[in-house]
Each structure stands twice: as C-alpha cells, then as structure tokens.
Amino acid sequence: MTLLELIRAAIKEDMPQGDVTTESLALKPRIGRAKLKAKEDIVLSGASAFEQSMQALEPNVRIKWHFEEGDEILKNQIICTIEGDLVQVLKAERVALNFLGHLSGIATHTRRFVKKVAGTKTKILDTRKTTPGFRELEKRAVVHGGGMNHRMNLSDAIMIKDNHISVMGGIKNAVNRVREHSQLHIEVEARTLEEIKEAVDMKVHRILLDNMDNEMLKKALSMIPSEIETEASGNMNLERIQSVAEIGVNYISVGALTHSAPCADVSLVFNWED
C-alpha cells in the first residue's frame, strides 16, 4: 500500500460522510496560518505523511518546515508553519497528527536506544514487529532515530529461526537445505550453547543470540569467531541495552522500537484571527 493510499484510507476512516461538526457550522473558506508545536522533546519523522494528509483536503496548503526528519526538536519549538484554508486544515488535522505523532514517537524512542549504546561497536536494529501496512514508514522512522533496518520482509533475507530448525531436525539440516536453493547470507537463531556451536561449525553469516542473559551472552561470544556477526535479541530494554552492547555484540534487535513506542506529543495551533 502506498503512502497516498494509506492517507486516503485514514481520511475515509476519520470522516466517512464528511466532518459533520465543521460542515454544520457552514464556515466559508478562512485563509490563515497554523503552527505545529512540539509539546515535548522529540525526533522528527513523518513529515511527508503529515504534508500529504494536509494536501489531500487542502491542495493549496503551503507548509514551511523548520526542521528536517531526524532532527532533535525541543519542547515548545515550532516544527513547521502552515498557510491555507484553515477550515480544510482543521478537517485534516487528526489524520496528519496521527501519522506524525506515531512516526516521530518511533524515531524518538529509537534515539534513546541509540544513545545508550554510544561508544560501543553495537548497532541498534528494528524487527518485523510493525503495524500492518505501515512497515516502510515505521522502519524509515527507525532510521531517522539513528537505528538500522533489519530485513524489510520475508523476501528480503534468510533467517533460520526456531520453527525452521525444529521442522528440519536441527541447524545443520536447515542450513544445508537452504544452501541448496539460495546463495544469500544465512542468519541462524540460537537459543543454547549447543546450537551456537552447530551454527559456528556451519560457518553461517550471522548468529542471533535469542533470549540470553548477559552471562550466557559472554559465553556465546567466546565461542563465535570474529568473522561471524552476532546479534542479541529478546527482552531488550533501555535499562539493559548498554550492558549488552558492552559485551561486544555487533547488533541488538529491539522489537519495542516499533511495537511499543509512545506517540510523540505535538499539537496544531490555529491563528483564526489572521
């Protein structure tokens, strides 16, 4: 689904038979200005979705952005100024804010994780735990926050997980079968030290260390040669992330970047007097 299709669906959801409140006021076009204001410190993402939501109802709207996506914005700073028919802007307000608030929330949450691992070699990755239809937007927001994208979808990369291992009767069988059909790099999920040894013996590209405590992660890294990348995953939060990075893994994947990020607090202030 394209961004424009998402926006059209969101507007249809929000006003299936129009905005009965605004339309019942029988307001004539009111050309004026509005300002988008940060009500907390945020990292900006979703500017295009915000702008196109406005344009869907007010094609002549003019938006001047004072920040770029990925910029840190402080509480009470003005993110952008809007000029156009404020009656139509009012109708588009909630949809536009929903996009920008959600995506800026992901970027802001990601930036917190990225700052926690600053000074280490570890990179923060997202996962496929995204809102259906919003994956491209949400993964772009992760990048705006300073994180990196893991595979975009199941067609993008090979990752042998626990169910693949179970159905094939072990890591060796699974890796060998995949290599018969693909030349892509292989990542294998390992839950035990025995599985790590098997993955190392198969010379896979990356090993995902799943749901291991810090002591087990240290043992795992002592078994894995430097040419094999390592990724820690499972129960990763802001309180723990720094200690995991200091162990020396290459990557930490965090589902919470997309599935648990709070919405960024922003508001649209209208200047009806002008």
TrEMBL record:
Record's family?
Belongs to the NadC/ModD family.
Q: Does the keyword Heme apply?
A: no
Q: In which pathway does it act?
A: Cofactor biosynthesis; NAD(+) biosynthesis; nicotinate D-ribonucleotide from quinolinate: step 1/1
CDD domains recorded for this chain?
A: QPRTase
Q: Which SUPFAM superfamilies match?
A: Nicotinate/Quinolinate PRTase C-terminal domain-like, Nicotinate/Quinolinate PRTase N-terminal domain-like
Record protein name field? nicotinate-nucleotide diphosphorylase (carboxylating)
Annotated GO MF terms: nicotinate-nucleotide diphosphorylase (carboxylating) activity
- Gene of origin? nadC
The root-end lineage is: Bacteria, Pseudomonadati, Bdellovibrionota, Bdellovibrionia, Bdellovibrionales
What EC numbers are recorded for this enzyme?
Answer: 2.4.2.19
Q: Where is the Quinolinate phosphoribosyl transferase N-terminal domain?
A: 19-104
